[in-house]
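Quick question about two entries, pasted in order.
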Amino acid sequence: MVGIEDYQIGEIQKDGTMKITPFYYDVKSRDPTEYEECKNCKLLPVCMGGCPMESIRKNGHPNGPGCDINKYVWKEGLKFYLMRKYSNLFSKESLMKNLGRIPDKNEQVWNFTLSTRE
């Protein structure tokens, strides 16, 4: 949250050093193994509790789970990668059991268009 003084992690001094704020230490001391939502999550080793700023938006402080959209993105990305890269090691059924639904090979996974500049 750029420009919001309460969430400033530091201030660059004239000599080039950085003066760290207490908020920096709040964010760096996050321990997602203390969050109920994260304790048993299969994606914990990957996301480590998500984004501190998302936690602030969702919980009002940085020391909570911040995995709103991130959980979905990591999960879908991991399934897609494992299915494509290691199809001989991971069956579609085992991935579905552990991570949820997997798109078919011919299914359009991303549905968006990029605008072009004229």
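Here is the second entry:
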Amino acid sequence: MTQGYVYILQSLNNQSYYIGSTKNVLRRLEQHNSGNVKSTKSRRPYKLVFQQKFANIGITRQIERRIKDWKRKDFIKKIIKDNYIKSRPLSSVVEQ
């Protein structure tokens, strides 16, 4: 199975965060900044502030959804500060 990345972007326009998952972080960042992603188009440009690799894209998508469900900026800031997603139930799939 293909590995994937959870990433966090920060808008240089209003400092808001966007959480996503992908197989190719640099390509995805380019898509966000070029306006090809409807949900982020109005807040660009973005900078990449975090990325973490996971064993497969399925787990990556689950972790992305979990972070989005938190809807808490302080959790997102902690992930960025720690430079690591600490996810107990899924920790066995995190690549070190």
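Reply: Residues 90-96 have pLDDT under 50 and may be disordered. The first strand starts at residue 4 and ends at 11. Hope that helps.
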